[in-house]
Amino acid sequence: MHEYVKDECVELVRSDDLNTKSFNGNRWFFPKNVPWNQVEPLALHKIQLMKVYIDHPRKFERRGVIYDDYGEMLVEDALIKTGYVVVSKNSHYFNGKEYHQDEPRTRARKRDLDYIVYERSKDVYIGIQVKNRLEYPRMDDVHLLLDLCNTLDLFPVLVTRLSHPRIYAIFEGIKGEVMQTKRYFLQPPFPRDKYEQINTELRIPLGVYQWVPNFLLHNFEILKQKL
Predict the structure, then answer these.
(1) What is the greatest pairwise CA distance in the chain?
(2) Could you report the per-residue pLDDT of 124-178, keeping only the tens digit for each?
């Protein structure tokens, strides 16, 4: 949704119905009749709020296991609690097959799956990628997930906060599933006052959970019916 809003704002700037300014690494849009010096204090306030969740630690360690993102741990707990068998974590090898990526591996482009899991009742092995981000998953990440699952003969599942309609269209054309959480998962503790401000002022739906939320358990129960 935020991409659509940005596109509309850009069009309004082009038609000279809206002002815009690049400030502190962000693009700001504001009414034509409001000078920037009135907008700047609000922009600085929002930048400080953004810094709170941007700088919040993402990696998490539990019982000697390191998770690249706290959301991955919540997904793992949801899988176990709903009866899936977690076969492997951070894997590109399964059942005698290995995925080889032609492009060099970069920090932003992992070539493995977050999880390979087994669902007993349907006798299905599943490849899961967790994209706990504010923005939509990148198309190269989606293609990588599908390539991995195709090579390893797995049912692909993308777990993401939000998905662009074109990603849904891709998954509709194959056997796979997009699971939306509609929450940006962050690990506790998190300052309560900042949590409220970010949710109400920035309209960012944060999800700070010590235990796996019920809606995530429900989503994985529903997935069983779709396999």
Answers:
(1) 65
(2) 999 999 999 999 999 999 999 999 999 999 999 999 999 988 898 899 888 899 9
pLDDT at 172 (0 to 100): 84
Domain of 220, CATH number, reads 3.40.1350.10
Note whether 142 and 43 are same-domain residues. no
Are residues 105 and 46 located together in one domain of the fold? no
Residue 209 domain boundaries: 60-226
Q: Give the per-residue pLDDT at 110.
A: 62
Count other C-beta atoms under 10 Å from residue 57's C-beta: 8
Q: Which of 93, 92, 163, 153 is nearest to 126 (CA)?
A: 153
> Based on the domain organization, do 112 and 132 belong to the same domain?
yes
The 10s digit of each residue's pLDDT in 43-65 is 999 999 999 999 999 999 999 99
Q: Domain count of the chain?
A: 2
Residues 86 and 190 reside in one and the same domain: yes
CA distance linking residue 219 with residue 75, whole number of Å? 10
| Residues 213 and 195 sit within 8 Å (Cβ to Cβ) | no
What is the 8-class DSSP label of residue 157? Answer: E
CA terminus-to-terminus distance, the chain: 29
CB atoms within 10 A of CB 157: 26
Mean pLDDT is lowest, of 14-23, 40-49, 78-87, 126-135, for: 14-23
Same domain? 218 vs 138: yes
